[in-house]
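Lab notes, practical 5.
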Amino acid sequence: MVFSGSMVALVTPFKDGKVDWEGLKTTIHTAIRFLDDVIDVNNYPLPEIELLAKGNRRIGLGIMGWAEMLVKLGIPYGSPKSVRTARELMSFVNKTALEASERLAEDRGVFPNWKSSTYDPKGRFFRGVEQKPRHCARTTIAPTGTIGLAAGLQGTGIEPFYENLRENRGIVMSHTSATGAGTDWRDHDPEVETLMEIYQGYRRSYEHAGAPRSGKGGGRPEGFVWRAWEKGLKLGLQSSSDHVSTHVSHGVIYVEELTREAILEGIRARRAYAATDNIYVEFRLNGHFMGEAFETDTRPRIEVKIIGTGPIRKVELIKNNTYIHTQRGAGTELSFTYVDNDASAGESYYYIRVEQEDGELAWASPIWVTYMK
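Output from the prediction step:
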């Protein structure tokens, strides 16, 4: 059994944008001694647990702040260099932890169950290298959710890493939000997160349960797009490809000109829509374009223009996650106007979903309107 209080996380020290290996070494030696002392002063609920804990003297030394470290070193997360750096760092941590444990064993003795362990050359579990550590195991993947926050890190893991994005005028968008690798929208920064993925070609739609191409169960229901809007997040829509799904997912951004700056500005303004084919979508409310938020004292008047890649079956108008109007198609183009005569005072959001006869889809980013009735 792993000692429940043995998991300690360390933020790697830095000096001039480089890993302070000497500082890290000192920290590891201190932590190993600290964890060893904890085993002896701890109160155990059962004698059997105490016997096992003190017999193996298993401790858990981990690290946190990995994403922050890469930022300070100027290394992209997930890059080949970051993988090499991870290998170098953890090799150093493992080696130094073993050295610290063996040095401590010189004064306090090896762990009582050393005989016949993997370190004993006479034992049947011997792995080929005789070592005499104070602890049977020294490192672990530490659960650093709470202490990470106390240490000033950017959250319970690499996300949300919003501070660095704000400093560098970066942008982040959710990906496969309603899958096991998705989100429940607990973290959000409106400055750097303005769009979300509603459709991913290799997988499915994340609009809401039962929506076209939403799949059959499974995944993470909390990650549906509707849940984000329910929480009050003002997020526009885009669609992206992954794996082998090239050219079946389209994220369209309306821009003033074809420049990097204009594209980023369009993303930040939420002037975007998602599609599974090269479908053209215009969506306005009282003259305001998709993605905007505004106030008005006139009834919401929706204007829609669609040019499809095939015959259009229908366009659904959704308000506050409720279907309020269906416009049937008759050909590859469709334009219509709709006035919400049931609008009540307060803020509401409207968006449309286009459905073609061949199953291709498109979704416009919502428009948020506060009606001053």
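Observations recorded by the TA: The chain has a mean pLDDT of 87. The CA atoms of residues 58 and 137 lie 5 Å apart.
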